[in-house]
Amino acid sequence: MKRVTLEEVARVAGVSRATASRVVNGASSVDESLRHAVQRAISSTGYLPNIAARSLVTRRADAIGLLLPDERRMDGDPHLASVVSGVTRVVRPLGVHLVLMMTGPGTREQAMSDLRCGRLDGVILVHTDPADPVPGQLIEAGLPVVLAGRPLEPMPITYVDVNQTAGAALAACRLKSLQCNRIATITGPQDTPAGQDRLAGFLAEVPDAVVVHGDFTRQSGVAAMEHLIRRCPDVDGVFVASDLMANGAIPVLHRSGRKVPDDVAVVGFDDSSAALTSEPELTTVRQPITDMAAEMARQLLRQITEPRSPAVSVVFEPSLVVRDSG
Amino acid sequence: MKRVTLEEVARVAGVSRATASRVVNGASSVDESLRHAVQRAISSTGYLPNIAARSLVTRRADAIGLLLPDERRMDGDPHLASVVSGVTRVVRPLGVHLVLMMTGPGTREQAMSDLRCGRLDGVILVHTDPADPVPGQLIEAGLPVVLAGRPLEPMPITYVDVNQTAGAALAACRLKSLQCNRIATITGPQDTPAGQDRLAGFLAEVPDAVVVHGDFTRQSGVAAMEHLIRRCPDVDGVFVASDLMANGAIPVLHRSGRKVPDDVAVVGFDDSSAALTSEPELTTVRQPITDMAAEMARQLLRQITEPRSPAVSVVFEPSLVVRDSG
DNA sequence: CTGAAAGCGCTTACAG
DNA sequence: CTGAAAGCGCTTACAG
């Protein structure tokens, strides 16, 4: 398994290394006959360009990072596969590698170094802690970065999000059209944009809704529902701000003798796998995760190609998926 | 943001580039005072080695690939986050990147090229199609690769697996100790090692078990259970070969008026997130996914460092997690 | 233990 | 359009 180099291709094709390089990189103007000769040489030798050598001169790694929260927190977000899938879709045809980094001790600093030393061209940040200083440092350093989801504090950074407010409104309207009279919501954590927006969007439609707080975890869903039925026994419609919480909440309803959706209608948010593993299956607000991830990749790529291009935010519209729970 | 090179570090420290390089790479024997001078120069300049340049000469990418089935099939495997977490744990301290590749058109060829052109030092193959020729090609080419799970056909390849047979036996014993008389199993696909072994392990303990086939998907779990209660109405204990199938199967039992575990005990396999989102929560066979993934990474790293080292298989013992379903 | 020098494989001004 | 040449930033025999 000898390494074939450009040098060799050039010799076989009877051209200079420069010309060979040009056809490898699809440069515009190379004589047709030479181009063919080089192409033949490439396939006859089985040539593959050495990426390290190329990187060294182009100063591009052709790799981007996906920074994820750690395993524990990932559990609250069943979207990983969809995110990877969406990013992959846009990035692979370009030969760009997707490197995964799960948050652990020193991960973010690691990512910063990788960026600075040119090992990564940019990063996508998922579920970053609102207090995390990394996004700020990144944009300050002018490094390509995009956020999954709106940052807590306004900052000049590119992000992709779903219209959380509109999604919550969709849930509210569903509950109202079901003739629910006593409507409640189990919220997400109020120190995150998603948690805040879903509550605000819901209250805008149902100002007198009973509000019980959760934190997006399944466990918090059961606790919140237990609290809710104690506090408001005649509740007949509830918007649970994440499918995972809804998945925890529904059995509580059952155990209390209430049927879903007959006695209490339940609408979730996310359309994650938890929506399908619930019984009954969840009516929920869908975010187009894969498309959103693809867009994040596109935005990142643009920033890489055009440094210092202006920050933008791209917001996708959610949709209601009606199933059996409400 | 000027790039600091080794050259510069050397000049600041008043040594040659070679010496600077040696301390950067922790080479054994460099004079204490020179070492210190270089270290000072490194931190004062904020030096970070250019990985591409290093790669070019060391011929190592310091990156490994994780080849996954596509999103659809991932759905049947809720372990992605755990796998990534386990691999990351061993790979990050070494500065090795984890690049994710989801199967799509041309992915496997892509991975082969990346390996050949030195962009990846090795790959971990997850859930490869039994008919996939890639693993074979890889080992034939002498490229570092490890499989998640035993290959269907015996081949000289390193893999890490859980003892599927023993796991199924654990489930069988649980059902027997619960005094179940009419025992059944819903199997995984019989063209996969996991599907085969879980059935064989179970039958070894309960030879007269009723067997209904599934394919590890949730949907197949509901179909199989519907079939089962029709065919064997007095069933009182069932081993479902994946949590996801069990998650689909339990509501079928409920709808038929049977209580779990009082009328029918259910034991799953995987201890995946579906075990917790089931109602009641699933008693199941746990595989230590994160540890297994870490071991895959270690094995791969060893192959990279010691080419042509012999193929080994590492088998982890499963354990029974008793919860509410059986 | 240390340094001068060669070389890893590519791209890209620069001439022609 | 094409080629000779320089250079990307590092590591590593090879002498000393």
UniProtKB/TrEMBL annotation, chains A, B:
Pfam family, one: Peripla_BP_3
Keywords: DNA-binding, Transcription, Transcription regulation
Domain of life: Bacteria
Molecular function as annotated in GO: DNA-binding transcription factor activity; transcription cis-regulatory region binding
The keyword Transcription is annotated on this UniProt entry: yes
Domain HTH lacI-type: 4-58
SUPFAM superfamilies: lambda repressor-like DNA-binding domains (SSF47413), Periplasmic binding protein-like I (SSF53822)
PANTHER family membership: HTH-TYPE TRANSCRIPTIONAL REGULATOR GALS (PTHR30146:SF109), LACI-RELATED TRANSCRIPTIONAL REPRESSOR (PTHR30146)
Protein name: DNA-binding transcriptional regulator, LacI/PurR family
Protein species of origin: Lentzea flaviverrucosa
